[in-house]
Amino acid sequence: MNIGDEYKVSIEKLSNLGLGIARIDGIVVFVENACVGDEVKIKITQKKKAFANAIIVDIINPSQHRIEPFCPMQKVCGACQLQFIDYDYQLQIKREIVKDTLHSIGGIDIDIPFPIASPEIKEYRCKVQYPIGQTKVSKKILAGYYKQKSHEIVNIKYCPIQPRICDDIINFIREKAFELGVSGYNEKKHIGDLRHVVIRHSKATNKNLVVLVVNAKKSFKKVEDLANSIYSQFKDVCGVCLNFNPQKTNLILTENSQLIIGKDFVKERILDKTFRIGTNSFFQVNPKSAENIFAYVRNYIKSEFENPTLLDAYAGVTTFGIVLSDVCKKVVSVEECKEAVNIAEDLCKLNEIDNIELHNMDSEKFFEKDLKTKKRKFDVAVIDPPRKGATEKTLEYLLALTKNKIIYVSCNPATLARDLKYLMSRGAKIEIIQPFDMFCHTYHVENVAVIDVKDVNK
User: Any residues with CB less than 8 A from the CB of 174 and at least 6 apart, and which?
Assistant: First the structure.
């Protein structure tokens, strides 16, 4: 097998990155844009000792699950890898990804329920982050997602997975920025005014917060003129902020922002609670699917416990703690980001909640401190760590702090499997793992794992 060689293969399954898997003479071949059941002609693009990568040259016999993508840019844009597969089968694929990952990394064999579907599969994405560039000759502004495996911007004028108003705002920015002489960013040369446009859309109010990420340390007139023009043009834009990012980095947003006009937040509703989402606030990009997760956790705790004490770690703006506060005696929330804790404090006042104790601290350090000083025990712990998961030390402390159940919310099956393996080695038992489809048409899948820790030797 060599690069450029062509073969006819059948796609057996999909990998955890959404790539089709075929085999040639015992070697695994990962095939882009393939579906289980496809018979395809492929060309080898990369050859390693244990595997190869390939692209499809021709679809000889398509899978019964292959459909026409509803977005004309699906093949070039890197955002919706699975949109050419029917939605029900996407959910089945995600179930298999979770099952296979738990087995291969954690040695965990457990029945995985069918993922709970997203209530919306179009216009569901309420956080838009478009890199901005410009053409070399005409200097027209480019805005869109990156092409797969590159930093080449796909100029997207219509994206069906985000609210239509976001397309309208982006298209206006393209034209107005060009008119005002606001230049697009050149990543290689680190020049240009506008690096990204970020939009936070509210499903509850249909209002939008627009953030212009500029390659500067402070504001300047033409970008302020652009901000004011956006606010004047759209009645559903509640505010426009500037975020200053002069760094040579892939980081999109810094902590340095300035409100130019309007409000610096949008309001969102989850179950019966109100949340404010600002420039740097972490909040789920699919609020309707997130609401399914919060309802699932809330219903579980309400059915299993009466007035429990709850630990909410990696809390962000304390979304779980706030949603769960009325079924708990007390909530202790831990979050290392100061801005998020400040927002959580305001949200508790906004929702008239008085049984949440907020801590601005790294989770591992807080756990260690609380064990040494207060020696508290919580009936339930809810953790929602970043993609890298939790450290073993954090999990060790968590076991010592928790009397009954740990509810682990994860956006990464691989680190979930690793962390569950450690918890099981300490005597914890997995009660259930329920997948949720948060990111429709991608290989990403959210999971809620309920872990019984009553019998762990602490």
Answer: 140, 141, 142, 143
How far lies 453's CA from each of 110, 117, 367, 379, in Å? 17, 29, 17, 10
Of 150, 168, 151, nearest to 159 by C-alpha is 168
pLDDT along the chain (458 residues), means of 10: 92 91 93 94 92 94 95 85 95 95 94 96 95 92 85 90 96 96 93 96 96 96 97 97 94 93 94 91 90 97 96 93 96 91 93 96 90 90 94 94 96 96 95 96 96 84
User: 216-221 contacts: CB < 8 A, separation 24 or more?
Assistant: 216/244, 216/246, 217/244, 217/246, 217/256, 218/244, 219/244, 219/258, 219/260
Q: Which pLDDT does position 351 carry in this prediction?
A: 96
**Dist. CA 83–CA 70, nearest whole Å:** 8
H or E element that contains 260: strand 257-262
Measure the CA–CA gap between 382 and 410, rounded to whole angstroms.
11
Alpha helix positions (H), 86-147: 87-106
Tokens 């559903």 belong to residue:
236
Q: Tell me if residue 411 is catalytic.
A: yes
CA distance 405 to 378: 9
What would you measure as the largest C-alpha separation in the chain, in angstroms?
Answer: 68
Q: Helix, strand or coil for residue 11?
A: coil
Domains and CATH numbers, the chain: 1-65 (2.40.50.140), 102-118+286-452 (3.40.50.150), 127-266 (2.40.50.1070)
Write down the catalytic residue from 126, 159, 411, 440: 411
The beta strands (E) that lie in 289-329 are given as 309-313
